[in-house]
Amino acid sequence: MTATTAAPTASNNITHNAFFIGGQWRAPEGSGRISVISPNSGQQIGEVPDGVEADIDAAVAAARAAFDDPSAWSGLPASERAAALIRLADEIDSRKEQFAALVSAQNGMPITVASQLEAVYPATLLRYYAGLIAAQTDDIREGMFGGVVEVRREPIGVVGAIVPWNFPQTLAAFKYAPALAAGCTLVIKPSPETVLDAYLLAEAVEAAGLPAGVVNIVPGGRETGAHLVSHPNIDKVAFTGSTAAGQKIAETCGRLLRPVTLELGGKSATIVLDDAELDLATIGNDLFVATLANNGQTCFLGTRVLAPKSRYDEVVDVLSAFAGSMAIGDSLDPGTQIGPMSSARHRERVEGYIAKGRAEGGRITVGGGRPDGLDDGWFVQPTVFAGIDNNATIAREEIFGPVLSVISYDSDADAVAIANDSDFGLGGTVWSSDADRARSVASRVRTGTIGINRYIPDPVAPFGGVKQSGMGRELGPEGLAAYQNLKSVYR
Ligand code: NAD
């Protein structure tokens, strides 16, 4: 292993030559390499081995052995596991800046966003789940037919955790923090686009002294992920990624009757009620998190903006001014609000949707092209479409870029109907100065989460989607329960 630098550039190309398996750095079984390309410059900034099926087999074997020895992890008193989770949180904290810089350099996340989320969320979750598991008490119930029943919460086993590139550290922690608290062991497969931060996580796990095999990390592509999903020695799959991949994974898990959590795509609604505050000086930050954060590459963003007919033009003007004011630039520059798309292929996809929006009659009020003077990276201007209805392709499909569509509605009931007229149901927001009215509208939107005048997934509350946005929940006590089997002991 080479030392990890804070902000990789083409001149300090970071290379790794092994995988973290069974508490050791193990040589890869294959000869392929994953090349990490900077979305800011198009230059290579890192290179790691590409995991193959035999690497997954070794990682699963290590995780299985660690799980099956109750003295290693799964059978430890909860307080001991909780202490280990806190140690890992401390090790992650001590690498905060490196995590933020590595993620930003690989996927184009603005460094300010990476510093506030990727560098902070994982340790926060570890501490939260350490507290929950340490506080979990025996559940003894008076039996109705005499005797008592002990309801045990046992760790579900070996977990295959598959993570996307957009929030690689946070979304890995959504899985490993509750899984480790419960007593599970894991094989984590990061996305090929974001592998360097996964090595930093492995270093933190090693430094925290977690027992060998409890956490194993093998970067690789979709075949490697598919092998992990169907591996006979896995007990549960936790997946975040696209709906298309989630459907394949669900099919495999259905055939194997294997528990699976699926956090998939979204096309959420930002519902602006007619009494909403629209002053950007007041709402700008919250609006950014809810609609454009991470260059639009965030699953829960409300990219369908529903505006009342009476204020339609005003909403379009405010959003256009907002999107047009964004500082676009190198993701590692602290002044940047919108960085590049994660890959050249992904930018093509986003630009394809912009072309489609135009072809279907949408009117671009701001953006629509590439920013001047940023020709080396994969940049797209934040773009607002007006004159779009909810049947347009760009209103129905997930774009995963900084593209907002403003759709007009007649009444609150109409807004709810349009919000619900979607294949997805992950997030969304309601903007209003009347709390009761906003809550009433929010309660009628079919979605796993929703915000009122703000949106941020909170560790204490279940996060996930309905319809094609997925199945199951992460975070909160429910996220811990997803890694526990219930066993009733009749005594
Ligand atoms: P992706 O589905 O292409 O890949 C996600 C991960 O799954 C990667 O590690 C990939 O290698 C792996 N993978 C792909 N196909 C697989 C298969 N058949 N079997 C096993 N593993 C497979 O998604 P992406 O492009 O990396 O991420 C973007 C998508 O993730 C978007 O659709 C976004 O909405 C979604 N996402 C959802 C949430 C959520 O919590 N709901 C959060 C973030 C991202």
Automatic annotation (TrEMBL):
It comes from Gordonia asplenii. Belongs to the aldehyde dehydrogenase family. It comes from the Bacteria. This is Aldehyde dehydrogenase. Residues 25-489 form the Aldehyde dehydrogenase domain. CDD domains: ALDH_AldA-Rv0768. Keywords: Oxidoreductase. The active site is at E263. It holds the Pfam family Aldedh. Gene3D superfamilies: Aldehyde Dehydrogenase, Chain A, domain 1, Aldehyde Dehydrogenase, Chain A, domain 2. The keyword Oxidoreductase applies. GO terms for molecular function: oxidoreductase activity, acting on the aldehyde or oxo group of donors, NAD or NADP as acceptor. Transmembrane segments: none annotated.
